[in-house]
Design goal:
Oligomer: single chain
Structural class: alpha/beta
Helix content: 10-25%
CATH topology of the largest domain: Immunoglobulin-like
Shape: elongated
Radius of gyration: 21 Å
Strand content: 25-35%
Distance between the termini: 46 Å
Length: about 200
């Protein structure tokens, strides 16, 4: 009996650790689905697709026409919405940044679900639901910079609010946004990686 309790405790700890790791750099897409008159569209089938990897997440709007999908790795997403009596809506190029909670409200037009309305190149969306601070440095920015080396510490120095105390040794010493030194977590594609690998 005691062995079973210990096994359950270990399983809970592992699950809690996995959830905490996923929250480190992941983001959230949320918003409402409404008709042209502003009325909520409940039970609308909503698909969130990562445009780079093709990974999809399926959900439905609730009784108030709201949807929420998390955790999502930073990247460009496509949102597809279908509901009976409305044209299918596809919203492309929704860029989710590190730790961002992005609200994307969608409006469906009356019509046949076989008809598709595609929206792309829309105005930039603003994170209005969280106070998290993060920065994503694009590959193009890195390629065009005169970096002294390819170490990640060179990128940390570009981040507003980052203070580097020392970059020698296996674990660089720095803080971001007034946080404590040596209090960071490193992830790659959403998975936690050992610190010694992050700086190679």
């Amino acid at each position: 009996m005691q062995g079973n309790s210990v096994e359950k405790l270990i399983a809970l700890c592992l699950l809690a650790g996995a959830a905490a790791a996923a929250q480190g750099t992941s983001g959230t897409l949320t918003g409402s689905v409404r008709d042209a008159s502003g009325g909520a569209v409940p039970a609308a089938e909503t698909i969130i697709a990562n445009e780079a990897s093709g990974v999809t997440f399926n959900t439905e709007t609730n009784a108030s026409g709201l949807y929420r999908v998390s955790p999502l790795i930073p990247g460009s997403y496509r949102i597809e919405v279908e509901s009976g009596g409305f044209q299918r809506l596809v919203r492309r190029g929704v860029v989710l940044q590190v730790t961002q909670t992005l609200e994307v409200d969608l409006t469906l037009s009356l019509g046949n679900v076989q008809e598709t309305v595609t929206v792309s190149g829309a105005a930039s969306l603003v994170d209005s639901q969280s106070s998290s601070v993060g920065q994503l440095i694009e590959r193009e920015t890195i390629a065009g910079m005169p970096m002294p080396n390819r170490a990640s510490t060179a990128l940390i120095a570009l981040t507003p609010g980052a203070t580097i105390q020392g970059v020698g040794g296996e674990i660089p010493i720095f803080s971001a946004g007034g946080g404590r030194m040596r209090n960071q977590q490193f992830t790659m594609d959403g998975a936690t990686i050992p610190t010694r690998w992050a700086w190679r």
